[in-house]
Amino acid sequence: MSGKYRINKIKQEHTIIEDVLPLLEDLAALKSIKSIIPGRINQRGGSGMQPYLQLKYNTPTGIKVLAKTSSSIQEVFVVTDYPDKTMRLMKENGLVK
Predict the structure, then answer these.
(1) Which is an annotated Pfam family here (predicted)?
(2) Is there a contact between 55 and 97 (Cβ–Cβ < 8 Å)?
């Protein structure tokens, strides 16, 4: 195996911020989402905040989302054929800010 694998639509090639994985699993439950690809992690200042997902913008393959915790921020790319519909569903279900 090449080190790349998926669990419930979530690509597990790179590290995922530990507290964010349950949020990504909730996203994966949406039928309009084909795949979730976690990306780069950066350090961030802050303390005591609960992890959350923040919508950013549409991409050629779907949606860019930021996963934020009190100490880190991670890019997450959501692959979907219906970005506008998926963004609406994410908001309606309280999955993103």
Answers:
(1) DUF2103
(2) yes
